[in-house]
Amino acid sequence: MESTSSPPPSMLKSRVSVWAPINSSGNHHPFLVFCFFIFFLITNISTTTCTPQISYAQHCDSVVPESAPTEQLLDSAAHGAEFLHIGDGYFTGGESILGETPKFDDDSSSLAMFRHGALYRTHTEGVIKVQGNLYFRGPRVITPLGNITHRRLLRFRINQPRFPIRRSSATFELYGFWSSDSGKLCMVGSGWSHPKQGNSRLFNVVFKLNFANKSSIIHSLVRGTLESVDTEDSFNYFKPVSMLGISQNGYEYTLIDREIESGFFSEYSSDEDASLGLDVGDRLSLCSFGRPAGEFELEYASDCDTVNCNPLGRTPGFLPKFMSFSQIECQYGGKVHMILRFSNSSSNLFQTFIPDATLVAEGAWNKKKNQLYVVACRILNVANSLADAFVGDCSIKLNLRFPATISIKNRSTIAGQIWSNRTVNDSGYFSRIVFQDTGNVPFNLPGLKYDYTETDKASKACAKKKGVKHRGKVYPDGHSLDMRFDMSVKDSKGQVGWGHALPIFVDDKFVDAPLHGKFRTGSPRLGGFQAQVSTSHNSLVNVSYKLSFTSSPSFKLVGKSSPSGSIEISAEGIYDKETGILCMVGCWHLQSNKPSTKNDSLDCEILVNAQFAPLNAGGHRVKGTIESTREKSDKLYFQRLELSSSSIYLSQATQSIWRMDLEITLVLISNTFACVFVGLQLFHVKRHPDVLPLISVVMLIVLTLGHMIPLLLNFEALFVANRNRQNVFLGSGGWLEVNEVIVRVVTMVAFLLQFRLLQLSWSSRSNDGSEKGLWASEKKVLYSSLPLYIGGALIAWYVYHSKSSYQIPSPRTRLASVNYNQRNSLWGGLKSYAGLILDGFLLPQIIFNLFFNPEEKALASPFYIGTTIVRLLPHAYDLYRAHSSTWKFDLSYIYANHRMDLYSTAWDVIIPCGGVLFAVLVYLQQRFGGRCILPKRFRESSVYEKVPVVTNDQL
Which long-range contacts (CB under 8 A, 24 or more apart) does 60-65 make? Predict the structure, then answer.
């Protein structure tokens, strides 16, 4: 949290910290922002004048005497990055402030945080004046909210949260003094609480904190209290809140060297050749791998029913499943200090500091054994009082290494052990625990090798399914990014899971390629050699994959049933780039209710087959199966799963980006020509004002709405820079966003010109002597065209209803699902039908000419011919696009957008033919009379007499 400006020493001005809910869409109207600013200003002024002054001398002089400041410390880093900072603290109490009891458990996100602001030297040596912010956050709660949708060119939301998270919070702005001799800090100030229910309240407080200049593994706890300065009978009084945090300021290593010399780590030390070396010359080398490693899975090697296995010393029966490193700080020479968090859920490892689920640790890298040795201590006596909590019982040891070889059964790039050097009968003893990273963050460690152990088995299985080489078809290269793909997995009951497949190794090359990243090789942090890309021209390559997908709870497999529905398969085998066949043997870990090592619950009787499509093919990119090779009578047998992927190749993505750039240019050209053609019509009616009443108002309304409705649907693109859009389909920087605004501006110009033409035509009829005849003909046009439009809308509704009833889709990907919903919704069908009406914009003019039978040329030839071409060219382009593009995804279409008109091979022929026919009919009507297209017996003269227009000049 950012600090604010310094208050005068003589008085404290209360400031209001407003925690407003953030709109997920990112749309902040300037008027709303202005209103919010005025509200904030008024509230701030009112509270400043109404808040009583808080005397520092009265509440804190006995802790740190007040001293006049002399100068501001501009370089606060001189005291250390962690000076007077608590990032995630633990607190008890605060019910009156937050409106609820704070929760600190595996599902909690309660938090206490303190950070200093401006620092000032004072006349007293060793005393520093401090400004700071204290923040409390309560547990989260999910509240329902209506669906929110936003539209923007080439960007769309998928599964947008409908239940935003709300939390109670309290923020205090404080000032006070810290003594370097005693390590005590005392501050006074005010702050507002924002409970989930009820009104905000103002509290006047005094904050006391013990924060020493130096810290160590034993002296790493920071204790503090927040007390009310009001009397107990006051409405804003609250009971003291106790706070506990971890300090790493001025850290001194006191245990690790002594523990290494004592030989306690030699008991479980592994062979140095089995681990990769670490260059400890750079103090950040270890941190660069420890911080992103994420969580580690704990594996209990012994029977925990008879022997204690809990490293936390909690009640027997509780066994944490995951561990993570937090607050890691590295020093030169390979030393590191940190805290170890334990939890039953991997998603809660990084939430908050929970003392009885945390170990304080320090360690050092052993160059000879290529391992990190760590000693850890428990935080004791937390249940009684936070003021009495202390760090003790440092009998816990940990080693960590980077394995030199991984395989299908062991994919971990970081592994280690935790044990106690106490005896079985001693208090605090626990059995040895093995841990390894979950593999969610693969590391490119130079020197890391892969041991292929199942390729022979995969080769024998693939021999039965050997593909046929097709001349002229090119499949992805085994070392290309095209080997990764999103996928859907469907079981025999039709339940679908969504996930991805990522290559880990291709031959001897490590693939550091996240799903939305690039290949990277080498790292300056680790010693060793860099993996080389295989230059072999052999069509067969060895590959190693990680397949993971998430499904609904009903998607269950024998031996694998996870509450989260997450399933992960490690696989290895061979890939033939000449046939596009990928054949692998897979392993997955079976869930057990009893803690055990992973290899005791490993099922490797799985065969994965996938057929890649050629690079120039459309449709599904990958199709395949996941099946069990066990007998059906085996209890671990499961029915075949079908996998498929509709994601695109890199070459197709490049082609699509080029196509979108072309289409945005075509849209700009089309809208510009639309403006030009309307401008020519305005010039035509200016030269011939007598033709204005002869232009069909219905036709002009259709054209005007055709420009206005897109503007209304995309109005935010003109004035709102929404930066919180998700799921960008194809990245192209900000170029498409800039072009989108340009398109809207040009569309608005076309709309204004078209509206001007409508206004002139409408007003001219009031001055025309044949006003009644003109409006009578216009009514006949409306009566004739409206049933046609309504009938077409009913047909569109019927088609939509038929598709909804009899064509239930099973989309292969999330993008395909969105694509289907956009095209086949009722609203989508009506929008497409509106595009058809706009394509036939000349129909009302043709009907008007039939009823009124004018002889003048009401429409300029460039106007109706040019506008017809502008409307029909997208259909010609759609035909070209359908035959030239190998991959189709409607949501990426800009020009000839399938959501704004009817597009298909049939429609792309019918609509242009109809448009050309209408233009020819208008030409004939304006040359030979409005009823020239009718048989002679229907060409009787009009019953209305035309009266010349009398202009103002003639009057």
Answer: 60/176, 60/177, 60/186, 60/187, 60/188, 60/206, 60/208, 63/184, 63/186, 63/208, 64/127, 64/176, 64/177, 64/178, 64/179, 64/182, 64/184, 64/185, 64/186, 65/124, 65/127, 65/177
The tokens 């989108």 sit on which residue?
740
**Which among 159, 154, 254, 200 is positioned nearest to 43, based on CA atoms?**
200
Confidence of residue 591 (pLDDT cuts 50, 70, 90): low
In the chain, DSSP finds a helix count (H) and a strand count (E) of 16, 28
Q: Is 660 or 618 the better-scoring residue by pLDDT?
A: 660
Pair type for strands 509-510 and 496-506: antiparallel
Look at 17 and 674; give whichever has higher pLDDT: 674
Whether residue 721 is predicted with pLDDT greater than 50 in this model: the reply is no
Pairwise CA distance, residues 717 & 437, whole Å: 44
Is residue 660 within 8 Å of residue 894, measured between CB atoms?
yes
Task: Give ∠ CA 912-914-919 in degrees, rounded to 5.
Answer: 95
Contacts of 430 (CB under 8 A, 6+ apart): 307, 308, 309, 310, 311, 313, 419, 420
Q: Which of these, 501, 493, 492, lies nearest to 573 by C-alpha position? A: 501
Which residues have C-beta within 8 Å of that of residue 444, sequence separation ≥ 6? Answer: 510, 512, 520, 521, 522, 523, 531
- Angstrom distance (rounded) from CA 621 to CA 635: 34
> Can you name the residues that pair with 152 across neighbouring β-strands?
155
In whole angstroms, give the CA distance from residue 506 to residue 477: 11
Looking at this protein, which amino acid is placed at residue 139? P
Radius of gyration over alpha carbons of the chain, in Å? Answer: 37
Where residue 467 falls among pLDDT bands split at 50, 70, 90? low
Q: Are 3 and 699 in contact (CB under 8 A)?
A: no
Task: Using the structure block, give the residue that is written with the tokens 């997955």.
Answer: 588
Q: Which segment of 99-113, 327-341, 380-394 scores lowest on mean pLDDT?
A: 99-113
Please provide the DSSP assignment of 703-716 as one string. Answer: HHHHHHHHHHHTTH
165: Cα within 13 Å, side-chain hemisphere? 7
CB–CB of 908/878 below 8 Å? yes
Q: Determine contact, residues 611/623, Cβ cutoff 8 Å.
A: yes
User: How far is residue 713 from each of residues 29, 717, 871, measured CA to CA in Å?
Assistant: 17, 9, 20
What the block records as the tokens of 717 is 């693109």
pLDDT of the residue at 952:
55
What 3 state SS string does 561-602 have?
CCCCCEEEEEEEEEEECCCCEEEEEEEEECCCCCCCCHHHHE
What element of type H or E holds 70? strand 69-72
DSSP H helical ranges for 840-936: 843-852, 861-884, 907-928
Neighbours of 475 (CB within 10 A): 23
Indicate the DSSP class of residue 783: H
d(Cα 839, Cα 841) in Å, to the nearest integer?
Answer: 6
Residue 543 corresponds to which amino acid?
V
Closest CA to 856 of 687, 731, 614: 687
